[in-house]
Design a protein that fits this description.
By secondary structure, this protein is an all-alpha fold. It contains 2 helices and no strands. It is elongated and about 35 Å long.
């Protein structure tokens, strides 16, 4: 369940980035894209902040 929530959060950030670009809010879209990239990178490495205290591996 926690993995589903984490993955949904990452997808939501990227969806927000795409929405920002479509609505011509490039600054917001760029920031959200960077945040999503960092979150995806941390999740793929199994970083403790993206595993909810070790509950998700």
């Amino acid at each position: 369940m926690m993995r589903f929530l984490r993955d949904t959060l990452i997808i939501a950030v990227f969806a927000g980035a795409l929405t920002g670009f479509v609505l011509h809010e490039a600054a917001i879209g760029a920031v959200l894209a960077v945040v999503g990239g960092v979150m995806l990178s941390l999740a793929s490495r199994g970083h403790k902040y993206m595993t909810f205290g070790g509950l998700v591996r």
